[in-house]
């Protein structure tokens, strides 16, 4: 027997590592940069959504049957807005953690996704948070639309006329919420690309 025959075959773990390395070569060169950029922009969009919503507050007066009544609105008066802030803050935290992990792996010049299990975990988390953001944005949109249109066949007026600054801030926060949802959907696509190539 020669020395080559005495060599032990590679272990399953080593072959999986080799497959991951070979698979990572098939990914676009800018894959890691795209992943990092998406996480950063998602973090910023979520933070903007939280900050704009939590600063939405205004006092004014409204005319009802000839009487001028004081009105005061604040984001925390609505459960839907509370929900949006909670979900956006959670997504911001998720994006921050992922951004730190991606940055660390890029500095070490290794793959930003360490294994298929890691990729599946990211895939699931991005989907859950994406659907949660869509849910929060939709719930807040319903309340905002009611504030803008009032209720038909009732004396309830359009509250956004006297509280235009409040309503504009809420609308901006909702827009950033849906933008974050789109960014999470793009992250899911990148997760799928990694899973299909590696």
Automatic annotation (TrEMBL):
InterPro entries: CASP/CASPL, CASP_dom. It comes from the Eukaryota. It holds the Pfam family CASP_dom. Residues 32-183 form the Casparian strip membrane protein domain. Its main location: membrane. One of its GO terms (cellular component) is plasma membrane. The chain crosses the membrane at residues 36-56, 83-107, 119-140, 171-195. It is a multi-pass membrane protein. The keyword Ribonucleoprotein does not apply. Keywords: Cell membrane, Glycoprotein, Membrane, Transmembrane, Transmembrane helix. It is found in: Cell membrane. The keyword Glycoprotein applies. PANTHER family: CASP-LIKE PROTEIN 3A1, CASP-LIKE PROTEIN 4A4. Belongs to the Casparian strip membrane proteins (CASP) family. Homodimer and heterodimers. This is CASP-like protein. It comes from Centaurea solstitialis (yellow star-thistle).
